[in-house]
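A note on notation is needed here, since sequence and fold are reported together in a single record. The reader may check this reading against the record printed directly beneath this paragraph.
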Amino acid sequence: MPDILLYALLAGYGVAMLAAPLGCFVVWRKMAYFGDTLSHSALLGVSLGLMLNININLAVIFSSLMVAIILISFQEKQRIASDTLLGILAHSSLSIGLVTISFADNVRVDMMSYLFGDLLATGPTDLCWIYGGGFLVLATLAWLWKPMLAMSVHAELAQVEGIPVRKLRMVLTLLMALVIAVAMKIVGVLLITSLMIIPAATAQRFAKTPEQMVVFAALLGIMGVSGGLAASWYFDTPAGPSVVVSSFILFLMTQIVKKKY
């Protein structure tokens, strides 16, 4: 197997396993649009990283966190409807990022790789970020699994029982920002949320327990990565979007099977 394909497979599998549990929380808590907002803000982090000459992954995590803090503070004040606020922040942060990059005359930027990913350009450094960040995310989720699950089932009841819901929301936001930073290379900022949501939504129809849903989502994500990379390799299609299309095909197939049987 060529190194370029091996690195791509390892990176894709790592992101699939990493995105599975967070994707389940996104589906359970109906946070799809929230995830989109964070992923759009990732481009602002990219522009800041390039302008200030700092690590892009760290800049993406920082920008996503800032947007999340702004979003949560506005939601608590309840001055603007949540969906309206999400729409404002998502498109504003994306536009600010694009405008900021346009001022960087001394920086050459391949916007397509940031918007739609460049999976076949994955290298050893990217693998270190993916698996290092993945270990941190999965360890944190394993530690906070029960309170986060209680928060997802009924936030008000969890708060009454003494679970720090507000802190857990911030932790979940931080973990999503970290996943977006490491997965940006795989599918780009415009498609990151789909890599979390589609396998989780597919697994939801067959899983009987939350833990089973996470395992199924990870397996379906790995299958989506394998199918997308195969299509990209043999048909010369863009790798990131091909992975999402492959995951979507699996989703459609499970819908048909479920209805038939």
About this structure: The domain at 3-189 is CATH 1.10.3470.10 (ABC transporter involved in vitamin B12 uptake, BtuC). The mean pLDDT is 86. The CA atoms of residues 14 and 131 lie 6 Å apart.
